[in-house]
Amino acid sequence: MADAVLFEFLHTEMVAELWAPDPDPGSGGKRRSLSVLEGLGFRVGQALGERLPRETPAFREELDALKFLCRDLWAAMFQKHMDGLRTNHQGTYVLQDNSFPLLVTMGSGPQYLEEAPKFLAFTCGLLCGALHTLGFQSLVTASVASLPACKFQVVIQKS
Amino acid sequence: MADAVLFEFLHTEMVAELWAPDPDPGSGGKRRSLSVLEGLGFRVGQALGERLPRETPAFREELDALKFLCRDLWAAMFQKHMDGLRTNHQGTYVLQDNSFPLLVTMGSGPQYLEEAPKFLAFTCGLLCGALHTLGFQSLVTASVASLPACKFQVVIQKS
Questions:
Q1: Is this complex scored with an ipTM above 0.90?
Q2: Testing the interface with B: which of A10, A11, A17, A36 to mutate, by most B Cβ within 10 A?
Q3: B11 has a chain A CB within 8 A of its CB
Q4: Is the model's pTM score more than 0.80?
Q5: 3-state class of B142 per DSSP?
Q6: Is B2 on the interface with A (CB under 8 A)?
């Protein structure tokens, strides 16, 4: 489906573009690039959260919001559902994607692992932005143990 | 359709991000930003040109390639066809979109006209990149007379 491919290509080139400017890997450049990508993702996630069809006008329960991300948001972005959702019932959620599309184009050897964070930052921001639109403040991080699988950890911030 | 919305949101935020860094509008900053957006578009267009289904393995005629952009490429990006295609039969083509989706979110008053180029640069690059994949060197520029309509002018470079 060309639409999905279009988003993936644009994401790849955007990462390449935003990663390139800082010639000094020892400086804060990488952190800055990650933060720019996260910020972009946040704003896209906010906008997307407003546009996706929702059966209920509000999500009172955190778990409903997280299920919405795993099903509807993931389907809109990647034409599939998240593979797993676990929670400690204390505001921490782990979302598992066994084959994350934005990592699939990378090689799968361990030597690529350190390249992974730049392909996850946008989506971390996007999840956080979508949750923000749904009324939840959160911290979202991602980790990769074995490419192209990855986990997003969402910690809901209590006000 | 959320996929299309996703691309449009990402494009909007990317333009905002790449437009912002240069605080001095009098310098070459705007030209540089436009050129970065065009470059991004070019690479996405190249990749997209390789992935879109093509009935014939090669486009011998320029006009076939241009029709492909107006139908298949536009459908993949914007779920519609280009509204018009004219040519002088000497290598110059004018592609008309009466309601270009990446301009629709802008206001339509004449005061917005000068903002338009930054929303067109990526797509100019993309058309050029897709043509490159199809075997044609080109120069692509865009113009807006009345928002949200716009015209892309493609000049095929003879080798």
A1: no
A2: A10
A3: yes
A4: yes
A5: strand
A6: yes
